[in-house]
Amino acid sequence: MKRLFAIAAALLLGLSATAQTRTYVIGFYNLENLFDIYDDPAKNDNEFLPDGANQWTQTKYEKKLANMAHVIKAMAEDNGRYHTILGVSEIENRMVLEDLVAQDEIADANYQIVHYDGPDRRGVDVALLYKPEQFTFIESESIPFTFEGSDIDFSDIDTDYFRTRDILMVHGTIAGEHFAFYVMHLPSRTGGKGGNLRSRGAEIAYRHGLRMMEKYPGIKIVAMGDMNDDPFDESMRDYYHGRENMEEVGKEDFFNPFYKMVKDGLGSLCYQGQWSIYDQILVNYDLAFAPEGGLKLTPINKGYYGRVFKKRFMETKSGQYKGYPLRTFSNGAFISGYSDHYPTYIVISKEQ
To answer: Is the pTM of this model over 0.70?
Structure first.
C-alpha cells in the first residue's frame, strides 16, 4: 500500500511539474505630453517647439523618450516579462510612438502600434502598443466622442465647439481567446468642470462594449485610461458600471481593481496633497470570472488585483512636491523627469 501511495504521489508531482501558467501583463501609462519638436499646423503644439514656451529641443525630446522607455523596461524587469498590451495617452502622433518603441532599452519587445489621429484641441491622442507574439490583432476602431443618444444634461457645454480624444478599441486574441481593449483619456477637470463630459465618455465606451459582448459571446473586455476621475466618481461607478468588489459584478458590470486601492490611500497621481487613481483598468465579468482553463484576472500582491507602479527614480526627491511623480517640467523648468502619472497594470493568467 505504501508503495502504491508513493507511486501515486510521484505521478502527481510529475503532473504538477509539467503544468505551466501562461501569464500576461496589461497596463496603461499617461506619457505626459510626448510631443515631437516639429510644428504641425493641425495641432496646438506651439509650446513643444524649439522656440516655444518649453524650448522643446531634440535633446529634451530624446531624454523624454529614454525616460519613458526606462519605465517600461523597469516594469518588465519587475514582472519578468514585457507587457502584452500597453495603452498610452498624451502622445502627439504615431511618429513619437515609433521613436519610443525603437529605443534601445525596449527595442527587443518588438512592440506594434495601433493609433489614429484624433480631433483633440490640445493635439494629443491615445494609442495601444502590443506584442505580436502574444496578441493577434483582428481589428480596431476610433470611436468618436459624440453627444447623440445620451440622457446626460449638456446645457452648459457648447457641443458644436467641443472636441476631445476619441476612444480607441482594439480587438484581437490572446492564447486563442477574444479580447477587446478600450483606451481612453476622458475630458479634463479644468476649472473643476467636465463631470458630465467624463460620464458621457464612459457611457460611449460602455455601450460599445455591450455591443461587442453581444456580437462575440464570451469576449473578455478590458477598459483602461486616464479617466480624470477616481473609481468612486459618477463616470466610473454609474456610467461604466465599475464595481469595487467581485461579488457585486453582474454580467453587464465591470470589476474595478483600483476602487479598493484608492480607498486604501494608494494613488497614481497627486494634486494639492490628495492622491487619486485616475489611471484605471477595468475588466468585464467574463474576465473576472473566467471558467477553469481560461484566462482570468489574477491577484498581484497584498490581495490587490491591480498595481500602481512606482520606483524611487520616478519620484520627486525634495521640495514642495516631494513624493509626487517626477514630471517632465516643474514651474516651467525642464527637470528631466518621467510623467506626472504613475503607470498602472493588471495581470491575467491561466494554467495549461
So the answer is: yes
